[in-house]
Structures are given as C-alpha cells and as structure tokens.
Amino acid sequence: MATASQPLGGKTTCKKIFWAVFPHACFIVSLVIYAFLGALMFSHIEGTRKPKVSEEYRTFLQKLMYLARKLSDNVTENEKFNNDIRELFNTADPVWFINPEERWSFFGSLFFCCTVFTTVGYGNTYPVTRSGKYLCMLYALFGIPLMFLVLTDMGDILATVLSKSYNEFRKLQSKILASKLCSGSTCSKRNELKCRAQSKIVINEPLTIMEVLRSQSGTKPVKYHNMELFEMLIARENENTQPARNKSMERWSSCPELAREKTVSRVIENFDKIGKELEKLDVPIVLMVLVIFVYISCAAAILPNWEKNMDFQEAFYFCFITLTTIGFGDTKLEHPKFFLFFSLYIIIGMEIVFIAFKLGQDRLIVLYKKVISFCAEKNMSSKKIYPK
C-alpha cells in the first residue's frame, strides 16, 4: 500500500504545483504572444511602406544647399550659419531620414510594442501610416490592461517575497538583540525552567479520548449508561486518527468529477486573489528606495557593455526613465534588440517601482489623515473655548 500511495502522492503534488503556477504562467505567456503578434503586424505594415518624397522634403533640401553655399571662413558669418542650420533642422521631420525596413524590422517592431503596452513611449519610433496609427491605438487599448494585470500578478509574488524577507530579518534582529540582552547565568536558568515547564505540560497533556477514558477507568470504575454515546466517541476517535488524504483519495477515485471541480475552483480562487498580497505589504519606504537604487545600478553597470555611447550615469538615467514609464526619448539605443533581452528586467523593475509608489501613496494618505484630524481637533477645541 505504501509503494502505491507514494507515486500517487507525487502526482497530486505535481498537479497542485501546476495549478498554482498556471494563472501566473497564463498572464506572462499571453503577454509574450501579444508582443510577438504585434511585432509581426507592425513590421508588415510600417516596414513595407515606401518612403514618399514630399514637397516639404524638397524645400528642406533646397534650403540646406543654399546655406551650404553661403558657408565661408569668416567666424561671424559661420555663427549666423549655425543658427540658420539649427532653425532649419528644427523644421525637419525625422521620418525623412529613416529607412522603414531597418527601423521596422522584427526586433525593432517588438521593441516598439514593448514601449506601447508598458506606456514608456520613447517617441523616436512611432507609426507613420494611417492604418498603423489606428492599429496602434487598438493595440494599446488591449495591451495596457494586460500589462497592468501582469504587473499586479507579479506584484503579489514580489510583495510576498519582500514581506517574508523583511519579517525574517526582523526576527533575526530581535533574536540577536535578545541574545545580547539575555546573556548570563540568570537568563540560562530562566530558559531551563521554561523548557522544563513546557516539557511537563506536553507530557501530562492527554492526547486522545481513549487515554482520558483509560485514566478514569484505572482510578474508578465507570459505568456507561449510554452505550451509543460511547460508540460515537470511539468512532470519532478512529476517524481522527485516520489520515485525511486517504478519505479524499477514496472519494475522488469513486467520483473523479469532484476532484475536477475542486481543481477548477482552486484555480478560480487563485485568479480572485490577484492583488491581495500587494495590499497587505507593509515594509519601510526607505528599504524600497534602496532596492530600486541597487536594481537600477546593476543594469546601469551592464548596459554600457553594448551601448558604447553610454556611461554609468547615462545608463542609470535611461533605466530610471524607462522603469518609471516616463520615456522622454532623449537617450537613444544603438542596439535595441539587445535591450529586449532585458524585457523581464523591465517588467520586474516596473513592478518594484510600482510597489514603491504604492507604499509612498499609502504614507501620503496616512499623512493627510493626520493633518486633517489635527485640523479638526484644533477647530473643535477652539469652538469649545470660544462658544457662540
């Protein structure tokens, strides 16, 4: 019987783990599929368009050639030339200098899709065709809620990890402080007395109904007038001693629909619990700021290895602007497809920043409540002192 129950228990454990991980995997896989479909769609629409030579582009080239002819060796005239050329390039459209096939390759389109549903929006890549603009609005309409759902789901996992780590750190800190304060013979004697008292309590505690009945029958003969009550107590004792897993296994084997319904209900409960752990998180805001600083610093140290135009400070600024979804677009990437490998880093980083903002929001609400209650108490005390 033991050999047959072991693999069966292993299968049930694997099924429990699978159905526990299933909702989280669904969200992430859905987001990945959505990003790949968007990349295929935009690379086909925007990448295959033919660049049109407009009248504004021709006028721009004529003015540029005219200013180039006026260039001379005189310093004062060259300063005027710099101002004129700056004004001319301010009127230029960046689309004139972009090759659609290079900008809207599969990896470039995938990078654009990630900037859309993460609401970063750098601004250096954007749809030009009318159909591309309409599809971009429709794509963002469904992609942004999906991204927020992934962020909320991963926020529960990170909140659980952060809260447990913080609680374990506090317990370790309290144990260290207790060991420092509780040093000496008096404390050891107290601990020995506590341990002896606990051991006596455990030994003398009756564990079952049978032991209670036997102890009573050993001291004094007991006559049971109600045999049915006695049999009910024995039956209840036997039920409690049997493992609960065997009863559930017998019920599920006789009726597998019950097991299927129970599994489905557990999965639905996992979906309903999304966002609950994030609301329970209570860690210091200083700790979250420190986590964000370390997290961005790690990426800022790696990013200059393939982006040669960036140093540590520029990479730190770029990662902060990305994770906070500000996305100015002033810092451009030469190799965006390498940065796509950091997609998991971006999602987790956005979640950490989101948790920090949530904690900051909760602290601000508490502060506003204190200010309003303080003002209300002042107002009530002034009314009592100066009655009308």
TrEMBL record:
Keyword Membrane: yes
Membrane topology value: Multi-pass membrane protein
UniProt KW keywords: Ion channel, Ion transport, Membrane, Potassium, Transmembrane, Transmembrane helix, Transport
GO process terms (BP): stabilization of membrane potential
Spans through the membrane: 17-42, 104-125, 137-162, 283-303, 338-357
Subcellular location: Membrane
Pfam families per the UniProt record, alphabetical: Ion_trans_2 (PF07885)
Superkingdom classification of source: Eukaryota
UniProt domain Potassium channel: residue ranges: 95-158, 291-361
Keyword Signal: no
Species of provenance: Motacilla alba (White wagtail)
High-level lineage: Eukaryota, Metazoa, Chordata, Craniata, Vertebrata
Homology family: Belongs to the two pore domain potassium channel (TC 1.A.1.8) family.
GO molecular function, one term: outward rectifier potassium channel activity
Protein's UniProt name: KCNKI protein
Gene Ontology CC annotations of this record: plasma membrane
